[in-house]
Design brief:
By secondary structure, this protein is α/β, with parallel strands linked by helices. It has 12 helices and 10 strands. The protein has an 8-stranded parallel barrel with strand order 1-2-3-4-5-8-9-10, surrounded by 9 helices. Strands 6-7 form a two-stranded antiparallel sheet. The structure holds glyceraldehyde-3-phosphate, 1,3-dihydroxyacetonephosphate and zinc ion.
């Protein structure tokens, strides 16, 4: 039975010093692409579904797609709610078989964040559902909330937070942000901060906003008509350092979105008379699969 709790995957990652990729999916195509990549690379993966993803597909469809995957795939995977801001979504995820939830109250003052997170831990833990929480703020767009400045996670606050909430994994702010525009200047993470937090708290650390948005990908997308001027992500070298410093779960969405659209648009541009969308989707899926494989190799999560 490959659908496992996220905690199980992160314990293995901790033992072996790698990070597990959490890849956002919103439909069958993305799910199949991520899982095929995981199978080909022999790696665990975390299937992440945001509140937006649940609303887009309908949580019961997500459940059906994922349950079908349990029969089809060999590698272990977790089904995880990404950025659960509403208690309603967290309860829905639990009801529909998710093995992990993120409670994201990172926009609240720390005491309120602790209180909300603690409540979710009390709900989820008896059901063996993993709880990820977030402390600190990421620059840029995080779901519907815009933060005007980056507020990095304070190590002492992180210690207090995990002692009082007993969450299983902690997302920290150390220089990344969501989306395709992460840095204006040199792309750098606060690796020293990751190391300090890791020294103080034993639980697995999570890096959100970790897409690479490589210049090769930006160029390819631009040639196909997308406007991505100034797009810049986290370099592979920084990801490697972050893993060395203690990051055990890495969230990727933007790289998959752009890969999918490149594949789709390429078929449209090269074969404008093609009106069977399966042709476009086939190439889009292939691009997503290749990108996930690239990430698995970078995170070194082979088993
Ligand atoms: O961090 C958020 C993920 O990229 C999901 O984004 O809320 O647009 O589905 P979404
Ligand atoms: P990216 O936008 O960098 O892919 O981050 C995704 C993410 O953090 C999902 O929670
Ligand atoms: Zn995120």
């Amino acid at each position: 039975m490959p659908l496992v709790s996220m905690k199980e995957l992160l314990i293995e990652a901790e033992k072996n010093g790698y990070a597990v990729g959490a890849f956002n999916i919103n439909n069958l195509e993305f799910f199949q692409s991520v899982m095929s990549a995981a199978e080909e690379e022999n790696s665990p993966v975390i299937i992440a579904v945001s509140e937006g993803g649940m609303n887009y597909a309908g949580v019961e469809f997500i459940e059906a797609i994922v349950k079908t995957g349990i029969e089809k795939y060999r590698v272990p995977f977790a089904l995880h709610l990404d950025h659960g801001k509403k208690l309603k979504s967290i309860l829905q995820a639990i009801r529909f078989g998710f093995t992990s939830v993120m409670v994201d109250a990172s926009d609240r003052p720390i005491e309120e964040n602790i209180r909300i997170t603690r409540k979710v831990v009390e709900l989820a833990k008896p059901l063996d559902i993993t709880v990820e929480a977030e402390l600190g703020r990421l620059l840029g767009k995080e779901e519907e909330i815009e933060s005007s400045e980056a507020i990095y996670t304070d190590p002492e606050d992180a210690l207090k937070f995990i002692q009082e909430t007993e969450c299983d994994a902690l997302a920290i702010a150390c220089g990344t942000s969501h989306g395709a525009y992460k840095f204006q200047g040199e792309p750098k993470l606060d690796i020293q901060r990751i190391r300090k937090i890791k020294e103080l708290i034993g639980i697995p650390l999570v890096l959100h906003g970790a897409s690479g948005v490589s210049q090769a990908m930006v160029q390819e997308a631009t040639a196909l008509g997308f406007q991505l001027k100034g797009a810049k992500g986290v370099p592979d070298s920084e990801i490697k350092e972050a893993i060395k410093a203690g990051i055990r779960k890495i969230n990727i969405d933007t790289d998959l979105r752009i890969s999918f659209l490149i594949g789709f648009q390429k078929v449209f541009r090269e074969s404008p008379s093609e009106i069977d969308p399966r042709a476009h989707l086939k190439e889009a899926k292939l691009r997503v699969k290749e990108k996930v494989k690239e990430k698995i190799r970078l995170f070194n999560s082979h088993i």
